[in-house]
Amino acid sequence: QVQLVESGGGLVQAGGSLRLSCAASGTFSSISIMGWYRQAPGKQRELVAVITSDGSTNYADSVKGRFTCSRDNAKNTVYLQMNSLKPEDTAVYYCNADRVRVRGYEYRYWGQGTQVTVSS
Asked: pLDDT band for position 64 (50/70/90)?
């Protein structure tokens, strides 16, 4: 079993910054993709940013230039540095680990979610 533990959410004023962290633990041999999704009230979950094990990233257009996704493969941890936050960034942010190799099979896992609230 693989667990994803998130930290770093909270309340911040518009224009402020937050840094999210997500550490993966358990029994696995590799994680190809780690990243972040978010879900605002009444909306579908959407991709925010993902990063591959070799450092390639993909961002939602709405966060490009403001958010930075990074990863420490040795610690199996992914980060999301969020700058210039806007009220529309308010959502529950979920960590995701995709193509997690466990005993020859690949799985996808989600964290429990962390609330980010941006006040205007």
From this structure: very high
